[in-house]
Amino acid sequence: DAKTTQPNSMESNEEEPVHLPCNHSTISGTDYIHWYRQLPSQGPEYVIHGLTSNVNNRMASLAIAEDRKSSTLILHRATLRDAAVYYCILRDGRGGSEKLVFGKGTKLTVNP
Amino acid sequence: GAGVSQSPSNKVTEKGKDVELRCDPISGHTALYWYRQSLGQGLEFLIYFQGNSAPDKSGLPSDRFSAERTGGSVSTLTIQRTQQEDSAVYLCASSFKGAWNEQFFGPGTRLTVL
């Protein structure tokens, strides 16, 4: 599985935008970029995913670099509820096991 | 609709005993996954089911661990002769088949082996 690199931790203030970076220099053409987050004492939850184009949903936006070697998860207005560990994960779109390979993620702290 | 449910939510057992953990996936989801999260460790994959068969068991840490799925629905993870290092939160997830499909996670079972 192709690897991702994320900062260990980031801090933000409430109601400000947050940009969470992820590097994936060995990404293959069939890898989808997925983001999950894990709130304290809960199971992970899906945030967003994309392949080549930028994506928006009600939770966040995903900006994918033109060469696909990096991506950024954007939370437009952070709330206290967004404090979580955010995981950037590559999944091969050709199928196979389809398991999620979690790294250490980025722990986001949101200050009131 | 109902999400993924797991039972029990907490399980305390003595070293050497067997335990069974249950997962009820979202109705209609053909894929089911087990993961575990140990204190201070990340989430690690254990096993993946497509229907009732398990094409990927590569994450099971030893032959003390086994899992089955029946009727394309409920799954049971069994740990025999539990050890203290088995203490962790065991998470189940389900999805429609396809690497682009999101996985929905249950709340987990916290296993403590004394």
Task: Give a concise summary.
The complex is a heterodimer of chains A (112) and B (114). Chain A is mainly beta.
Assign a percent range to the helix content of chain A: under 10%
Give the number of DSSP strands of chain A: 9
Overall mean pLDDT of chain B stands at 93
Q: Count the helices of chain B. How many?
A: 0
Low-confidence stretches of chain A: none
Main beta sheet of chain A: 5 strands, mixed
Shape of chain A: globular
The radius of gyration computed from the alpha-carbon positions of chain A, rounded to a whole number of angstroms, is 13 Å
Tell me what portion of residues of chain A adopts beta-strand conformation.
Answer: over 45%
Q: How are the strands of the biggest sheet of chain A laid out side by side?
A: 1-9-8-3-4
The SSE string of chain B, one letter per element, is EEEEEEEEEEE
Strand count of chain B? 11
The count of helical stretches of chain A stands at 0
Q: Mean of residue pLDDT of chain A? A: 92
Give the CA-CA distance, first to last residue of chain A: 38 Å
Structural class of chain B: mainly beta
Query: Roughly how many Å is the radius of gyration of chain B?
Result: 13 Å
Poorly predicted segments of chain B? none
Strand content of chain B: over 45%
Distance between the termini of chain B: 37 Å
